Amino acid sequence: MKKAMPARLASVLLALAMLLTTQAFAAGSGDAGAGLEAETWQSGTAVYIPVRAVCEALGYTVTWKDDGTAQTVTVAGNGKDIVLDLTNEKVTDGKHSFYVGGDLSGNTTAGPILIHGSRTFIETGLFTELFGLRADYIAATGLAEIGAACVNSITIATQTVSTQTDTLKTTLQYPVISGLEDTAVQDAVNEVFRKAADDAQKEGIDNAAALEPVREEYPDFQNTCETYFNYRVKYNRCGLLSVTLDDYQYAGGAHGSTLRTSYTFDLRTGEQLSLGDLMAEGSGYFSAISKTVRSEIDRRVQAGLLYELEPFQTISDSQDYYLSNSGLTVYFQQYAYFPYAAGIQEFTVGYGELADMLKPDYGFLYNAVTALTSGENNTVTAGSVCSVTLEGNPTTGYGWYVSVNDPEVLWPCSESYAQDESSGEIVGAGGTYTWCFKALKPGKTTLTFRYYRSWEGEDSAIRTAEYTVTVE
């Protein structure tokens, strides 16, 4: 199997190697290489990091604006254009806009983006979602370690549909992925998202049709139905993609309602993973997760953040969940156990707490990435993720091409390139390529990397690197 490494800049990885002089940071180490440690601020159980200090250290331009109607922070550069609207608790990431006001419901009364001590802070979960990095809180130091992550080599675009009539306003945003080698898997995943959006649109049309006789009988009653459908990418690493879909419907009554669905896909096979698919049989995960949820509900009730309509006892066989960068999150629909005003309550269980309960295939959720060494026999365990880092310069026309002797043993799930920080903005400067591979099953395989110009063929390679890997 041969795959070209595209010459795209992943500035996030570049920034992780930077030597920072600002007081907000100190050098650290991450799962996939050098990292940064950022100062934090906490509200309830939520952890925040300063937007300007972190993002400028990562090479972005940060702009503050207050036009009298809204306070916004724009983070731009390196292919990103993110607007944080503090006034409306809204995020615009390129062409995708979504509201974040309910993100931390039950954890704190504060929102995920806020001003504290004249500075703008962002909650670490939202930060990792937007920038594709780790931001792990280290309790011993009170700092957040920001590090590289094995982000899937896919592109996620937003398909938008917006219509309005006298009886119905419809706004749909749903994800469309591209970049998977297996287009059948890619098409199947996209069809799930498209169908969910289509179903939401049809429900809105049905609601408007049902309301029409009421509007005709009572001319003064002119309520308009609304459908608002949106998504969030919660986990996009190591061959797994976890996405939430929110379907808000207002049918003309006192208030609307939101139904959340979530999907976790194995991007290699296209399989949709249930909670039970991730957990080892007989591991006691049902009881452990339920106990964590029960304890957190009690904490929120005692803190005055939540009121329980019906006592929670245990999660269900078909429990709604999604993967996030910090843990496995279970959630409950409106009115399931709590009043409407409580919204959709979420409860996250850290991967460390689940380490002994996850199936070996998903050990990468809590284990560090293993760096492979050329010329040696590298040994890794099934379910882990390993990485290779090589230097190169795509501006010369050369690129690294990797051949995996047995992709059923070791599967490439991530690739990126970052220009060297020391070269600054020098035209034609080189950088570092990074690949991540998921160990699928016991066996032995070889990774062969060749550095050549595509039009000259692999026999013209001027550099070669070989890695032997045994998966146990």
Please explain how this structure is put together.
The chain is of the alpha+beta class. It is 17% helix and 42% strand. It folds into 4 domains: 2-147, 2-Layer Sandwich (Copper Amine Oxidase, Chain A, domain 1); 151-273, Heat Shock Protein 90; 274-367, Alpha-Beta Complex (Actin, Chain A, domain 4); 369-471, Immunoglobulin-like (Sandwich), CATH 2.60.40. The chain is built from 6 helices and 30 strands. It has a 5-stranded mixed beta sheet with strand order 1-26-29-30-24, with no helix packed on it. The protein starts with a strand and ends with a strand. 38% of the residues are buried. InterPro entries: Chagasin-like_sf (IPR036331), Cu_amine_oxidase-like_N (IPR012854), Cys_protease_inhibitor_I42 (IPR052781), DUF3298 (IPR021729), Mao_N_sf (IPR036582), PdaC (IPR025303), PdaC/RsiV-like_sf (IPR037126), Prot_inh_I42_chagasin (IPR018990). Residues 163-258 form the Deacetylase PdaC domain. Residues 380-469 form the Proteinase inhibitor I42 chagasin domain.
Gist of the model:
By secondary structure, the chain is α+β, with helices and mostly antiparallel strands. 17% of the residues lie in helices and 42% in strands. The chain folds into 4 domains: 146 residues, Copper Amine Oxidase, Chain A, domain 1, CATH 3.30.457; 123 residues, 2-Layer Sandwich (Heat Shock Protein 90); 94 residues, Alpha-Beta Complex (Actin, Chain A, domain 4); 103 residues, Immunoglobulin-like (Sandwich), CATH 2.60.40.
